[in-house]
Amino acid sequence: MTDATTSTALSERKVPLRDRLPVISHLRRSVGLQRTMLVLGLVITTVFVIIAVFAPLLAPYGFAQQEADGVKFGTQQAPDAMNLLGTTVGGYDVLSRVIWGAQTALLVIVCAIAFSIFLGIFLGLVGGYFGGWLDRILVVLCDAIYAFPSLLLAIVMSIAITKGQSTLWGGILATAISITVVFVPQYFRVIRAEVVRVKAEPFVESARVIGVPTARILLRHVLRNATRSLPVVVTLNASEALLTLAGLGFLGFGIEATAAAEWGYDLNRSVSDVTSGIWWTAIPPGIAIVLAVLGITLVGESLNDLSDPRLRTRRRAGRAPAPVTAVDPSAAPADASTTAPAGTPAPTTDGSPS
After folding, report:
1. Residue 319: is it exposed, middle or buried by C-beta count within 10 angstroms (0-12/13-18/19+)?
2. Helix (H) or strand (E) holding 72
3. How many CB atoms lie within 10 A of CB 264?
4. How many CA atoms lie within 13 A of 333 on its CB side?
5. pLDDT of res. 163
6. Neighbouring C-alpha atoms within 13 Å toward the C-beta of 168
7. What average pLDDT does this structure show over 137-147?
8. What are the phi and psi torsion angles at 237 (to 5°)?
9. What are phi and psi of 310, to 5 degrees?
10. How large is the angle between the packed helices 168-198 and 94-130, nearest 10 degrees?
11. pTM of the model
């Protein structure tokens, strides 16, 4: 093989960067219902992120604002021109709190996922690579955390961290740390399983033999090949973080209304309004929770399905193959001279070649 042929083959095999990104690569190879679910989830999640980022510009009022132009909003007011979705029992604008609540939810999700990833990856990398008594202790601790209900563990950690004083960043960080305690075992187990598999590969053994430092082996050889399933875990845990935040707020262990807007807290305050026929205080934050969780879950489940080779193989195998016409080998061709291979003389009537 010439050098030109080799370079051409290598250039054809090189995959563009956009095709190697987690979500983009999954979107390009998805078809049918899987693509519909992924696109729908991406659209809902993108809208949620845009609303959260531009909440100060989109919200008509502040999350704790109770008056405008010197006019009090009132409590439990029906939707009108001043308050498009009405007001809450505390006299806050419902639409503003729903929009500001998206920002609070996004901050908690980002902080919780970031803390969980760094701590879970570090523990999984160290435990899976070195093994021994350290790995056994970490596995036992993760199993002990799994024994507790996740929401109950988050409640205990939230009480221990906030001590009843819930400010904006204090409440966000306390909630994020509470969720981190729940999520760290998941990242630890995923990374540990990948590290145990990767460290037995020949390229890792070769790096050890030639004297590559352990830190470089962990970062350049093991870690880079042990994070393939992280995007799927992150998207699935993001929806769980949002539900945990809403659960803490609904139970009264979340962020206070004067510190930040939080959908679970608003639902808690609107429980008594439902029996009185006041729907506008409960339905908007409830729909916001459902749509945000639905969008993130659709993205996570689609990535999970597209990352599983068995599901992709089954999808290809389900396609109907092209019909094949059976040929009877005993049937002689009508003209033997036309079917003879090129360069072979046609047989004569007496069996000898002409």
Report:
1. exposed
2. strand 71-72
3. 27
4. 6
5. 67
6. 11
7. 85
8. -75, -25
9. -65, -40
10. 30
11. 0.74
Burial, 216: exposed, middle or buried (Cβ in 10 Å; 0-12, 13-18, 19+)?
Answer: exposed
- Among the residues of 54-149, which ranges form H helices? 55-58, 94-130, 132-147
Structure tokens at 2: 């010439």
Q: Which carries the bigger pLDDT value, residue 318 or residue 237? A: 237
Q: What are phi and psi of 91, to 5 degrees?
A: 85, 20
| pLDDT band at residue 15 under the 50/70/90 scheme | low
Q: How far apart are CA 218 and CA 343, in angstroms?
A: 63
H-state helical runs in 131-213: 132-147, 150-162, 168-198, 202-209
pLDDT tens digits, 176-226? 887 888 888 888 888 888 888 888 788 888 888 888 788 888 888 787 777
Question: Concatenated DSSP letters for 32-58?
Answer: HHHHHHHHHHHHHHHHHHHHHHTHHHH
In angstroms, rounded to a whole number, what is the distance separating the alpha carbons of residues 115 and 29?
31
- φ, ψ of residue 122 in degrees (nearest 5): -60, -50
Strand partners, 67: 72
